[in-house]
């Protein structure tokens, strides 16, 4: 077999090379269309993701703002209750002064919480916790205990209440017999009286 090589001048193509050229253009064209479709899909996905991110961020911010406002209101209510307790105590007593100081501090904290951005507040709490870990943990435990007591007191029922529990306690305080099935206690007879 002899191979024949045709010499073509630059710029001219053999018939076989010309047949391959259109296929190459079609493949390149298909590849470009696929790239364009992929870019469009990527841009659409990116746009959808940005919209979802904006929605979630705005909803989270609204929830955080609501929680911040509720927390500030609760702190303000506790401060008000402490002020009321301080007013009912003897004026000038150490307890009254302590309650007033705590109430003032809580009122200031409530206003600061209302006025500050949530991010700033979280950053300040983190910095305090790093500088004073024991004070932070102690304060967190104290807040937890206070919240538990407040929740129990607000619920209107206690864990120990059951049928007759409150009545028995009230009767004992009044000096009466706590058991309604037994007759009331009779006073002891004196020397000249018949029983």
3D structure, described in words:
It is a single chain. With 195 residues, the chain is mainly alpha-helical. The chain has a domain at 116-153. It is built from five helices and no strands. The protein has helices at 15-88, 94-115, 118-131, 133-155, 165-174. It starts with 14 loop residues before the first helix and ends in a 21-residue tail after the last helix. The relative contact order is 0.04. Residues 161-165 have low confidence and may be disordered.
Which key terms come to mind for this protein?
mainly alpha, 5 helices, 73% helix, 0% strand, 195 residues, single chain
Topology:
Blueprint: H1 15-88, H2 94-115, H3 118-131, H4 133-155, H5 165-174
Number of helices: 5
Helix content: over 70%
The parts where pLDDT drops under 50 for at least 5 residues are: 161-165
Oligomer: single chain
How would you sum up the global shape? rod-shaped
SSE sequence, one letter per element: HHHHH
Cα distance spanning the termini: 147 Å
TL;DR?
Helices cover 73% and strands 0% of the residues. The protein is mostly helical and 195 residues long.
């Amino acid at each position: 077999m002899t191979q024949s090589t045709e010499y073509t001048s630059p710029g001219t193509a053999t018939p076989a090379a010309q047949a391959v050229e259109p296929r190459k253009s079609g493949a390149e064209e298909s590849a470009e269309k696929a790239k364009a479709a992929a870019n469009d899909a990527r841009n659409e996905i990116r746009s959808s993701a940005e919209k979802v991110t904006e929605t979630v961020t705005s909803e989270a911010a609204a929830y955080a703002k609501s929680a911040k406002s509720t927390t500030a209101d609760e702190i303000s209510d506790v401060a008000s209750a402490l002020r009321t307790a301080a007013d009912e105590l003897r004026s000038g007593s150490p307890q009254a002064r302590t309650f007033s100081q705590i109430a003032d501090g809580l009122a200031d904290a409530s206003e600061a919480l209302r006025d500050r951005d949530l991010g700033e507040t979280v950053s300040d709490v983190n910095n305090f916790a790093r500088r004073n870990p024991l004070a932070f943990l102690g304060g967190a435990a104290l807040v937890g205990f206070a919240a538990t007591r407040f929740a129990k007191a607000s619920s209107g029922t206690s864990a120990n209440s059951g049928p007759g529990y409150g009545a028995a306690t009230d009767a004992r305080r009044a000096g009466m017999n706590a058991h309604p099935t037994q007759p009331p206690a009779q006073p002891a007879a004196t020397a000249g009286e018949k029983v």
